Amino acid sequence: MSSKKTQITETKQTVKRGRPVVAGSKRQAVLAMRDAKRNAGIEIKRGRPAGTKKTSTDVTVEVKAKQTKAQKQAAMATVADVNEA
Questions:
Q1: How many Å apart are CA 25 and CA 13, to the nearest integer?
Q2: How far is residue 70's CA from residue 72's CA, in Å, rounded to a whole number?
Q3: Chain-wide mean pLDDT for the chain?
Q4: pLDDT tens across 14-38, in order?
Q5: Is residue 81 part of a domain?
């Protein structure tokens, strides 16, 4: 018995993965901005920026009170009385 070595050569096709490149898109603008920051020596980190913290006194919220069923019926009764007169 003779031992023969067989060589199997496979050609791999390159497959494009990820988002397609669309010229003039918002994504391309963001990527260009990131590259410009990297080239300027600015470190880019993950996550959202820290921002400023607001205290509870800075925020004011106005909430409308809901009408109860009795208040709605009273309002409908006054409208009906006005329409009858």
A1: 28
A2: 5
A3: 79
A4: 887 888 889 889 999 999 999 999 9
A5: yes
pTM for this predicted structure: 0.38
Map tokens 């590259």 to a residue. Answer: 35
Residue 52 token pair: 């400023």
Among 45, 50, 48, 40, smallest CA distance to 32 is for 40
- Name the domain count of the chain: 1
User: Which tens digit of pLDDT belongs to each residue from 37-71?
Assistant: 999 998 888 888 777 766 555 666 677 777 788 88
Residue that is written with structure tokens 């791999």 in the block: 12
Residue 23 phi, psi (nearest 5): -65, 135
Q: What's the alpha-carbon Rg for the chain, to the nearest Å? A: 34
Domain membership of residue 74 as a residue range? 60-85
Two tokens, residue 69: 């069923």
Q: Residue 69 CB: number of other CB atoms within 10 A?
A: 7
